[in-house]
């Protein structure tokens, strides 16, 4: 029975995800420690990271995190490299032919020269076609690998504890979004650049340098002397580029975070005449981004120039010197072929420099992306956790003490609370008193520091998280809707193609939302805009309540969930909730008594943590009309 249900199982590499019209993606959505059984059929690609360019000491450990994703895309990579081999082969045949063409024309005759010319043209066309296919296959591999990385990292982000998303340790949503979008695209560009450059260029380098050695060993040796010097310069500049790229990524992420924060709050900005301030704030962040990006672009432009300068300058000087020294011992056609090979060798050398550039530029993105996936769970599920199949809704908080982090004040200190099945309980307290925190503890979004929480006399820490949360449904304080249709929002629990429309409509009727939904242009299929912005606050709340009802859980938590309803709607919703939840525990969080009077039989008074007084005392002191008599039970 014990099952680990909550943690979504990693998608195994054998599964196929529809990717595009005629494409499937073999997903390697797992960390590098996962086995890769499918590779046994192509053990060649287990060795991918051992291919010289991929285990170069110049490549950092962050690159090693990409290995499994590259390995899983062995097929398009292999096809791309075969195309690149074809392209290099065409070139290697074409170069000597091109060198011999002038002498054929003068010595053998016009006809032979034409046929050689045609062969040459065919080789050039074949090379272009092979180049095109090489790009297509290698882009496919790079994009699919980045797709797998992106989905794997997002899956891990979803698994992270709530503490990662809120509070003082919380990560900015805009930053996360930037990493998963823009920075993942940088990783795809980098992967393509590496795949497209390293092996094809290495092949071209090998073939051209072999031709040079065959044509003239001494001149080849002289030409090769430029390479070590080049590597030292590239290595040094690459490290600088890496630092600059990291800074640029951070400034871009800040910009994205800021936009993510401001745009949804446009109402507040406009109502407070905040446009000017926001504009200035944006300008400052955009300016930081501009400086960082410009610095990066300058460095990126500088590296190939320096590579070209050192290499071409050095090699030409050395070749010229040795030609003078050889006093014309080399014939003209050989010299032509040699210089052509040399010219075609410079391309791969530059290409490798460029790929190294891309790698150093992409490395911070890889690190930042995989940082999102590295964490230890704070709320852990016991290996023997049981599924809660049925819950009557009896809840006990026993000596529960909690704070949000080390060195932070206690929010709850030895809280004892017993809510019996079927009871309706209201938590009343001043702002910041800890009411929502109690709900978060009940949902195990955080664990208490001390004490325990029991559901039907079972410690909730012994239940699987999924089954526990299935039994508790929360209508949060801030109504949170997603862009999508009304029905998708109400049936959020299900995939949109599995929605039970009868249940959706029933939930909407109970929450008094059916009437206004039917008046929308497309009824239940109306898109409600970003975060439900097409609806009024009260309409959003009714949809949120309908969403909670759709889940049919034993415990319903309303966190000031009816605050935006007018009196008539609230009355209707309340009556409906009375009916539906008659046999269920209901747990109400409200800031003022008036919100819960007549709704609940019992009131729970939360101790105010700041003044160390019960709210009962506080209300009595402030004369806020603590009409506890309206509850028929005891406080
Ligand atoms: N994620 C968090 N990290 C750190 N502190 C937090 C976090 N969430 C809430 N707090 C703090 O815990 C205290 C209790 O917050 P909680 O949201 O439980 O109050 P509440 O009683 O629901 O308030 P309100 O009625 O205003 O919604 C507050 O002082 C708040 O600042």
Automatic annotation (TrEMBL):
Domain ABC transmembrane type-1: 117-361
Compartments reported by the entry: Membrane
Keyword Nucleotide-binding attached: yes
InterPro entries with a match to the protein in the record: AAA+_ATPase (IPR003593), ABC1_TM_dom (IPR011527), ABC1_TM_sf (IPR036640), ABC_transporter-like_ATP-bd (IPR003439), ABC_transporter-like_CS (IPR017871), P-loop_NTPase (IPR027417), Type_1_exporter (IPR039421)
Pfam families per UniProt: ABC_membrane (PF00664), ABC_tran (PF00005)
Keyword list, A-Z: ATP-binding, Membrane, Nucleotide-binding, Transmembrane, Transmembrane helix
Name this polypeptide is given: ABC transporter B family member 29, chloroplastic
Organism the protein comes from: Platanthera guangdongensis
């Amino acid at each position: 029975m014990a099952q680990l249900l909550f943690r979504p199982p990693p998608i195994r590499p054998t599964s196929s995800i529809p990717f595009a019209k005629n494409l499937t993606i073999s997903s390697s959505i797992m960390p590098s420690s996962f086995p890769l059984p499918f590779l046994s059929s192509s053990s060649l690609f287990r060795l991918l990271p051992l291919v010289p360019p991929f285990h170069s000491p110049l490549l950092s450990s962050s690159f090693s995190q990409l290995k499994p994703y590259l390995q899983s895309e062995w097929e398009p990579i292999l096809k791309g490299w075969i195309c690149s081999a074809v392209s290099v082969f065409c070139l290697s045949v074409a170069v000597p032919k091109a060198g011999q063409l002038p002498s054929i024309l003068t010595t053998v005759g016009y006809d032979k020269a034409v046929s050689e010319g045609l062969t040459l043209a065919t080789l050039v066309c074949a090379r272009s076609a092979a180049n095109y296919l090489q790009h297509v296959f290698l882009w496919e591999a790079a994009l699919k690998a980045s797709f797998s990385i992106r989905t794997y990292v997002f899956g891990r982000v979803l698994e992270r504890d709530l503490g990662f998303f809120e509070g003082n340790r919380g990560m900015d949503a805009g930053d996360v979004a930037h990493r998963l979008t823009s920075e993942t695209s940088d990783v795809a560009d980098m992967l393509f650049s590496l795949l497209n450059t390293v092996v094809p260029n290495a092949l071209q380098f090998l073939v051209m340098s072999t031709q040079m050695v065959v044509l003239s060993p001494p001149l080849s040796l002289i030409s090769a002397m430029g390479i070590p010097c080049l590597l030292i310069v590239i290595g040094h500049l690459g490290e600088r580029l890496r630092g600059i790229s990291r800074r640029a990524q951070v400034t871009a992420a800040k910009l994205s975070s800021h936009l993510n924060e401001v745009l949804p709050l446009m109402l507040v900005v406009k109502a407070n005449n905040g446009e000017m301030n926001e504009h200035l704030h944006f300008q400052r962040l955009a300016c930081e981004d501009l400086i960082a990006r410009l610095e990066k672009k300058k460095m990126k432009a500088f590296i190939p120039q320096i590579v070209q300068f050192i290499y071409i300058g050095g090699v030409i000087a050395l070749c010229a010197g040795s030609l003078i020294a050889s006093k014309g011992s080399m014939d003209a056609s050989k010299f032509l072929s040699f210089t052509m090979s040399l010219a075609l060798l410079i391309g791969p050398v530059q290409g490798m420099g460029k790929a190294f550039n891309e790698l150093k530029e992409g490395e911070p993105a890889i690190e930042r992306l995989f940082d999102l996936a590295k964490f230890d769970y704070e709320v852990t599920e016991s290996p023997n956790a049981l599924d809660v199949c049925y819950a009557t809704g009896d809840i006990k908080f026993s000596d529960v003490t909690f704070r949000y982090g080390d060195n932070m004040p206690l929010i709850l200190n030895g809280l004892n609370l017993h809510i019996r099945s079927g009871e309706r309980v209201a938590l009343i307290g001043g702002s910041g008193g800890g009411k929502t925190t109690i709900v978060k503890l009940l949902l195990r979004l955080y664990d208490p520091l001390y004490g325990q929480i029991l559901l039907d006399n079972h410690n909730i820490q012994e239940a699987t998280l999924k089954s526990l949360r299935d039994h508790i449904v929360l209508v949060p304080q801030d109504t949170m809707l997603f862009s999508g249709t009304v029905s998708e929002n109400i049936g959020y629990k299900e995939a949109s193609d599995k929605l039970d429309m009868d249940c959706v409509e029933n939930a909407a009727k109970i929450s008094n939302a059916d009437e206004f939904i039917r008046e929308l242009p497309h009824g239940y299929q109306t898109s409600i805009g970003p975060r439900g912005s097409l609806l009024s606050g009260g309409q959003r709340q009714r949809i949120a309540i309908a969403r909670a009802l759709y889940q049919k859980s034993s415990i319903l938590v309303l966190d000031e969930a009816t605050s935006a309803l007018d009196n008539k709607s609230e009355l209707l919703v309340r009556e409906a909730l009375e009916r539906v939840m008659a046999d269920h525990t209901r747990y109400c969080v409200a800031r003022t008594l008036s919100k819960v009077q007549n709704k609940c039989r019992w009131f729970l008074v939360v101790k105010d943590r700041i003044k160390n007084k019960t709210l009962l005392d506080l209300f009595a002191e402030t004369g806020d009309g603590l009409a506890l008599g309206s509850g028929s039970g005891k406080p």
